Fold this protein.
Amino acid sequence: MKPQKIGDYTVRKLVEVVEPLSPEFAFVEFDQPTLDTHTSWLSPHFVEGANAEITLLFSFHTYVVQGNGKTLLIDTCVGNHKERAALPSWHMQNRPYLDNLRAMGVAPEEVDYVMCTHLHADHVGWNTRLIGGRWVPTFPNARYIFSKTDYDHHNSVSAADAKRADEDPNPGEGDFYASWADSVSPIVEAGLADIVTTDFGIDGAISLVPAPGHTPGHYCVHLQSRGDEAIFTGDMMHHPVLVAEPQWRTHFCLDPVQSTKTRRAFINQHAGGGAIVMAAHFAGPTAGRIIDNGGKPQFSALPGA
Ligand SMILES: [Zn+2]
């Protein structure tokens, strides 16, 4: 993705990794003939191969948003050295994420806000890093913005349920609680967490929009500046094909029925509009708009993005 200018703000994408996933791994139900009808617009950025051999490309990235003298990160990927036994591809990663952030001209100490659209393991990982056997905040001068609803949801789950969820290979909930211990709790204990409702905002330009379903307190980040508009949609839509087929449930959502409702409403609201959509897992050019396409919404990457 090329840097995007949204009014007074610049948005860049910091990629941790891009992984191919099979449609069966991602979706509870999908049908191959329908997926095949979308290959023409999904190729080459969002899928690889075709027909029965098709894989979906999933990017894990952070948005680096800078403007009005502030630096924000939106979602912090999987992180290094995290024990994620149920998910081998996330287990004990060792990737040059921080070096790449520094190469963008951003030192960890300069980050003012870390916004986690929700608190799953692949959105909180770089909140902390392992130093001297302890998990410490990676961004020591940042306020970390966590959803109160998600925070309360976790706290309402019993220890026995948490243990069961840790052993669940489902990437939505599995390891959620391990990531809580190594990537969320240390932030709260360090006094860096702001546990907020969706009336939170920054500088009159950045606000939160509730988007429940994937998790109960999932939020989107809305950026509006000088008439430009961008929406960081987190895991409300995991892959661009869901813009065309919003009813396909994923294995990753805690409440897939609500997730579909939220996604459908968002797509209907923004189809044909000017807002730039930046999702947490769209690969390649990533930034795009929802086009109406004769009443059949579709995701369209920005030209040259
Ligand atoms: Zn995710």
